[in-house]
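Annotated sample (chain length 612).
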Amino acid sequence: MLASIITDNKKMKKTFIYKVILMFLLGTNATSNAQINISVNQNIQYQVIDGFGATTLPLVYGTNDYIAPYRDSATAVLYRDVKLNMGNVSCGAFESPTGSGGPSANDNNDPYIANPSGYDWQYVINQKTKMIDKGSPYGFTDWYPEPKISTKWDWQGKWLRDLKAVNYNAYILECAEHIVEALKYFRDTLGITQSYVMPFNEALSGNTELDNGSYQEVKDILIAVVQRMDMEGFSNTKLLIGNEESTNLSYNLLSFLLADTAVSKYVGAIGYHSYPYGSQYASINNILDNPGQGQPVQTEINKRQNLKNLASQYNVKLWMTEVSNGYIGGASVNLPIDSVFSMLQVRGRAIHIHDEFLYAGANAYFGMNALWDYNSHVDHFGTGSNFYQEDGTFILIDQRDSTVKMTGIARAVGHYSRWITPGKTWLVESVSSDSLVMVTSMLDTIANKTIMVVINNKNSNETINVNMQRPITDNISGELSYASVRWQPITPFAATGTTAFSYSLPGESVATFIISNGVPTAIADISNNTLDIAMYPNPANNQLVITFPKTISNKIKFEIFNTFGQLVFDRKIYDNTGSTTLDISKLREGIYFVSMILDNQTFYIKKIIITR
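Output written by the structure step:
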């Protein structure tokens, strides 16, 4: 460990000295003579972006709310400003006598009949009132419960560990009851049914929630869980599985689990973490020194492509569900108080997001904790000396000076999350002519705009020339982070052509550009509705009903165009009955235009939204 810390420090010093020499030779505001060409093709779409999240803790212990004076401002910053929409909502040690506050204990000896007095839901209630209710008005709606099973720690699972030692089958059934009773409480008492549930968070590595656990044990538990979920009416809630400490450990476990259809048919998403500490994407130094210098590590790319292929094979989402603390300067170095907020953190995390989207095809990106506070830190670790090393956390609350602070990862994620419609935004093809100027482009099909995040890893100002496939229909806006500046609004500026614009980026910066693409000119908005034509529902799901007078032509044609102007659906009617129903179930979510053609002449066009 000491040797690795010394190596990290030497690397940091070497990098720092190199940058200082360059700044001396070039000047701090030096501008490169070369210009960077970036091409964006919105017609080539990859994965949908489900959003951004973190482990969600209420930071309430019994009746002691550690952050009560700061909660409203902290949750507003987290969900209104950074715009996290996802998160694993921990359920605490809920299987314990009502009012006890723990430790966990079996409600009774029958895994099929729950004893209501054997459950203490106060921790879940705290999550609902202190986090979910605070965040949902801002879009924190795609969270999922984490009623995780643990046999490692006495407080959460000694009784399960003891039962496993004497009766394995009973242990498996009790694990299933444990998970499903949490889902039932959310549904039957709180009125909430979410799309996913997360039974484990590092079951066999890292946290090692299953003491002396095995692949087979994880599978046995999951099979029992989904059988019980079916019995209790949770057929629409899918499993989020994997979530081991590293990409390789996650891939190995997932390959084993998904090979069994008794598990795979109930899985909606698979997850992975970017540990161990000091590895390529668990170290800000390594991120900046390798992909940040245009030299991504091929072995790391291969690991992510393995996960990407696995997700594709089983048609499930792939989420990067936890980062590690990045520890600029090494894990044992007491960092200066501003390092967790530094531009190195912002740029390093922005690069990490870029690479997870590009190489893994990840649908979501998570930090570590959504909120963390100084008093909780002291209670958890016994000291507050390394509180400002929690750089994987989005919001740090320091009771000593009554401050609520956004970290570097919050700023980096915000460059992406603040501008997209989660679940309706697609990663699209974008290419930079310079490996030190990285670009991520996303197409928001609801807002009809392209979001570009550009990372300038050079210490010199660089001019980018952007050309895209879709027309630019309004001034370009966005925000910029560099040096001590964070999320500085970009003054709206005009495009240099129908599909092009240029901009000069500061050195070592992260910029977000918002490009309105409007509606292709081939699709004019014709609203001639004198003949009482109606299309419903709108937004539509899998079917679109269209009504029209029986007195018009018997030869009617309907065409549906996407926002690129491409024809994606057509249907002809030769017998006018006054209505028709179009099956649009195969069309992706997004904005479309339905045209009604009478006698070879377009008579009516209506914009619709498909959402599911």
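Annotation: Residues 48-417 form a domain with the TIM Barrel fold (CATH 3.20.20.80).
Annotation: DSSP finds 13 helices and 29 strands in the chain.
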